[in-house]
Design brief:
Distance between the termini of chain B: 31 Å
Number of strands of chain B: 10
CATH topology of chain B: Rossmann fold
Radius of gyration of chain B: 18 Å
Strand content of chain A: 5-15%
Structural class of chain B: alpha/beta
Distance between the termini of chain A: 22 Å
Shape of chain A: elongated
Number of strands of chain A: 6
Order of helices and strands of chain B: HEEEHEEEHHHEHEEEHH
Order of helices and strands of chain A: HHEEEHEHEHEHHHHHHHHHH
Structural class of chain A: alpha/beta
Helix content of chain A: 55-70%
Shape of chain B: globular
Strand order of the largest sheet of chain B: 6-7-8-3-9-10
Largest sheet of chain B: 6 strands, mixed
CATH superfamily of chain B: P-loop containing nucleotide triphosphate hydrolases
Radius of gyration of chain A: 29 Å
Largest interface: A-B, 26 and 34 residues
Helix content of chain B: 25-40%
Largest sheet of chain A: 4 strands, mixed
Number of domains of chain A: 2
Number of domains of chain B: 1
Strand content of chain B: 25-35%
CATH architecture of chain B: 3-Layer(aba) Sandwich
Strand order of the largest sheet of chain A: 4-1-5-6
Oligomer: heterodimer
Chain lengths: 383, 248
């Protein structure tokens, strides 16, 4: 392999990009735009959920003469930025509002709620009223999982806080003491994924289009008649798109850090190296796919096949553990899976090379395989 | 055969060159001997195998049987590529690069030194008369200008053999005339040219022509010889006559 010919190809690709404002836009604006879109969409918490309280609890006068309403204390501990509280007397009318889509949930406190709760904790106190139970009933619209989780979580938190304030400690408790990811938000989880996904998508697409261009305009024919080797062409593209991919990763990361204040515990340069490797795999994939397209219009038809498997399988938006078991082996066949895992470990856990080397090794193997295949795909034209 | 093929004056030589794509025979027992400094025209209708012949000689596809030699070296040989220039049928330029950048790129691919590249670029821009356009993106040029730039890219490394695949298709009559001036100029500098065309009127500019049909060479000779043998007045008529005889 001749280095100066390889770098001549790299320089040519850079000049092509530099002379074309639209490509520059795609390369540099798209990652920033995508990061903003995903960041804003995924960093927001659930807010303003209309919730109706139906409180049948009358409160209870303790033996020391203090009047206590456990239900009112719990209500006052509900997070009102998550929930917009409304109060109604009729359970049926309240549920009707959920049915009509005017509210998401009805929280029902039964009659004698305070009394029943208190007496069950203090069995010595006799009670002559009927036991209506201590269960808070939530009748809600569970069609939106995020909202459902926010409502249930909010009520559970309010109950726990109220019990603690009253000095009523439940006998069994769960303590969370994170090893990694203390205070991590969903945005911290998603940024490494977005970074790998954007670089994968844009690099594959740009190389695919560039190479279909080389084929249709005849420049590939002309080049192959010169002393250049197929491997030098593929290598030249790899250097160019590896560099461009790293710059894109830098842009995504800058927006993540400056605008969304994401957690970065590890070495960002290691993350860039991971992304550069992914870009090299992706450009080789683009060259391979260009074999199957006769025109640029056909190349565009590959876009769903480029995006969807990676979107679904590589753990960009949800963890691989959430993918059905029978599909999971496929996750390990899409290269971005390793880049996403490595970047996430670097950012959120601060892991270094000593721990993420299996991901890097997998990417290097993919890169070697795809580069060889891409070179071979240019050579078989000679038969 | 060995003796014949060692003839150093024959820069392009093929013997019984055959190329099959599956069952289809694209090139059928083609034997060519083209001398140094000769302008040789391959003529024939579309699909006669002209382009395939050039692609075989440039090492872009493998031949099925027979032999091909360029500069006395058997094709394929990595020593051949630096000494040949191939101008494909398509303009084969990077439209997003300027005229100068395209020339620079091919110069770098051929491993020329920076000063040499600059020297060649000014020579070639003068040659194709596009000095004023050197900073323009190729995508903004007219079709005829692109053809001229394409020729310049083929010449950047001063090749000894030129393969020109239908260089005058889609070129206006005026430019076709100046193209032939370019080719004659190159010939005077000792460059050997194999050119394909289906414009019979252009063939008179060639030292020798070969008629191709269905992958076979059906007649070969100097243009006036061909006219004499076929007792016709135009190469077009001559081709039709040979073509009919071939079918019989």
């Amino acid at each position: 392999m001749n280095l100066s010919r390889t770098l001549a190809v790299t320089k040519r690709v850079f000049r092509d990009v530099k002379n074309d404002k639209r490509t520059i836009g795609l390369i540099f604006i798209a990652p920033i735009f995508a990061m903003f879109v995903f960041g804003l969409a995924f960093s927001g918490n659930v807010e303003d959920v209309t919730t109706i309280i139906v409180n049948h609890d009358q409160g209870f006068t303790l033996p020391n003469g203090v009047n206590l309403s456990l239900s009112n204390k719990i209500i006052s501990n509900l997070n009102t930025s998550v929930m917009n509280l409304e109060f109604m007397d009729s359970e049926d009318a309240a549920v009707q509002k959920v049915t009509d889509g005017k509210a998401y949930a009805v929280i029902i406190f039964p009659e004698n709620f305070t009394q029943t709760a208190y007496t069950s904790l203090n069995p010595t106190i006799s009670s002559n009223s009927s036991n209506s139970g201590t269960a808070i009933t939530i009748k809600d619209d569970e069609s939106v999982v995020n909202i459902k989780n926010a409502i249930l979580g909010n009520v559970a938190d309010a109950v726990t806080t109220t019990m603690q304030n009253l000095g009523l400690n439940p006998p069994v408790k769960v303590n969370s003491d994170p090893v990694y990811g203390q205070n991590a938000q969903f945005i911290d989880f998603i940024v490494p994924g977005i970074m790998a996904f954007i670089v994968y998508l844009l690099t594959t697409l740009l190389t695919l289009l560039a190479f279909v261009g080389e084929r249709t305009t005849g420049t590939l024919e002309r080049l192959l008649s010169t002393p250049i080797q197929e491997s030098e062409m593929v290598g030249g593209y790899a250097v160019a798109f590896g560099s461009i991919g790293t710059i894109q990763a830098l842009l995504v990361l800058l927006v993540g850090i400056l605008v969304f204040k994401i957690t970065v515990l590890g070495n960002v340069f290691l993350a860039f190296a991971v992304v550069a490797l992914l870009a090299i795999v992706s450009q080789a994939l683009g060259i391979l796919l260009s074999n199957l397209a006769k025109r640029e219009g056909q190349a565009v038809q590959f876009v769903p096949f480029i995006i969807l498997p990676v979107f679904l399988l590589s753990g960009v938006f949800w963890p691989i553990q959430a993918i059905p078991l029978w599909l999971r082996p496929l996750s390990y066949l899409v290269p971005p899976t390793y880049a996403v895992d490595a970047c996430r470990s670097i950012f959120l856990k601060g892991w270094g090379l000593s721990k993420i080397w299996p991901d890097i090794l997998a990417l290097i193997l993919f890169a070697a395989l795809f580069l060889i295949l891409a070179t071979w795909s240019l050579k078989i034209r000679k038969d | 055969m060995g003796n014949k093929l060692k003839n150093q004056e024959h820069l392009i030589q093929t013997s019984s060159l055959t190329k099959k794509f599956g069952d289809f025979t694209a090139i059928d027992n083609l034997s060519l001997n083209i001398q140094k400094g000769e302008v040789y025209g391959l003529l024939g209708p579309n699909g006669a195998g002209k382009t395939t012949t050039i692609r075989l000689l440039c090492g872009l596809i493998k031949y099925s049987s027979g032999e091909a030699f360029l500069l006395g070296k058997k094709v394929p040989d990595s020593k051949i590529a630096p000494k040949i220039g191939y101008m494909p049928q398509e303009t084969a330029l990077y439209e997003g690069l300027s005229v100068k950048q395209n020339l620079e790129f091919y110069g770098e691919i051929f491993g020329l030194k920076k000063e040499k590249i600059n020297e060649r670029i000014s020579e070639l821009l003068k040659f194709i008369d596009l000095e004023k356009w050197k900073e323009q993106l190729v995508g903004n040029l007219s079709g005829g200008m692109k053809h001229r730039v394409s020729l310049a890219c083929t010449l950047i490394h001063e090749p000894e053999i030129l393969f020109l695949d239908e260089p005058t298709v889609g070129v206006d009559p005026e430019l076709r005339v100046s193209f032939w001036d370019y080719f004659n100029n190159l010939k005077e500098n000792g460059i050997t040219i194999l050119i394909t065309t289906h414009y019979m009127d252009e063939a008179k500019h060639c030292d020798r022509i070969g008629f191709m049909k269905s992958g076979r060479l059906i007649a070969e000779g100097k243009p006036d010889e061909i006219l004499k043998i076929s007792s016709t007045t135009s190469l077009e008529d001559a081709f039709l006559k040979f073509s009919r005889e071939e079918e019989l």
